[in-house]
Each structure stands twice: as C-alpha cells, then as structure tokens.
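Teaching note: in complex prediction, the entire set of molecules is handled at once rather than each chain in isolation. The prompt given to students was simply: 'Predict the structure of this complex.' The entities are:
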Amino acid sequence: DAKTTQPPSMDCAEGRAANLPCNHSTISGNEYVYWYRQIHSQGPQYIIHGLKNNETNEMASLIITEDRKSSTLILPHATLRDTAVYYCIARPSVSMNRDDKIIFGKGTRLHILP
Amino acid sequence: DSGVTQTPKHLITATGQRVTLRCSPRSGDLSVYWYQQSLDQGLQFLIQYYNGEERAKGNILERFSAQQFPDLHSELNLSSLELGDSALYFCASSGPWGVGGYTFGSGTRLTVV
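The expected output is the structure of the full assembly:
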C-alpha cells in the first residue's frame, strides 16, 4: 500500500468547512484513497473512498487531484461531533489474495472549536 | 449499531490470566480483522481471518492467538496477561474481496491489574 502523509493536527471553527489534506505521491493506479475517522475511544468509522473522480456522500466530500498524488477530505459544515482523528489510507479496493488488511498511520487530529 | 458485535465491552483481569474476546462480524462479511489500541497509541493490526482461514498477521504476540469459526464469528485469546496488554481491542469485518470499507465494532476495553 502506498504511504500517505497527513498533518498531525488541525483546528476548524464550528460551522465552517474542514479541509483535511493527504499526500499520497507514490499511489499506484489500482489503489483507492480511503478515509476513516476515530472519535475518542470508539471504533473507527469508514467515511468515504475514491479512485480518481471526486466523491460525495452524506458525511463528506473527497477531492482527488488529477495526478492522484494528493487528496482532500471536506466536511462541509463541521460540528463539535466531528472532533476525531482522521486517517487517509491508500490501498487496492479489491484484493485478489484476500490479504487486505489496513495499516493505519497516525492520522490528523481534528479539533472543532466552538 | 455498526453490525459488528464485540463482547464483552469491558474486562478487568489480573496479570498472568487468560481471556477470550469475541467478535461477530456484520452479516455476510467473510473477513475479520483484529486491532489493538493502547492508551493514546495508534491502531495496531494484529491478525486477519477470511472465511475461517488466517490471511494476514501483524505484530501479534505469541501469547495471543485467534480463530474464526464456521459461523464466521471470531475469538481473540490473550494469555499470560501483562500490564502492558491493557488496551482497547477492536474487531472489524469486511465483505468479499475487501470491497468498500471496513466496519468496526465498538471494542473491548481490557484492563490488566
């Protein structure tokens, strides 16, 4: 799996858009970008994933650059409940040998400020 | 409710003891993954099972073992417990081929005293 780089922490004001960057300059053509988050002591939660097109769901939007070397997760109207550690992961979506473990890095600790 | 059930939610035990953590995956998911998260530490991958077979192993201690049963539930066995084994243990499941994302359970908090 390609290595990803994220800032260790970020602040965002409540009600504003939170933009979390992720660098994955060594990503290969069959690797998707996945985002998860972990609210304190809870199980991590899947947010969104994409290959090369921008994606949006009820939780967030994912913007992937044309060269696919970086991406941004956007929480459009951050609330205090969005305070969490956000993980960006690059990995194939389909694993032919079914060894498809996810290795989590340190992620970005997002603080939503009231 | 994520669909992944972990029991018990909390466990307090003494050093040297053995415990078993249980995980029931989301209906239809064939893969089960175990992770350990010590206080203020990252998520450490322990082991993966797919349809009853071990598929991937992380830095899992020899004192720890796991298995996945025919009904696809999984158990993580921790023996000769040490204080440093105190942690949150998460189980996750995913569908065939790992398509889409993982679904995590709410974890078992193990305290070794």
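Point out the following to students. The mean pLDDT of chain B is 92. The two ends of chain B are 30 Å apart (CA to CA).
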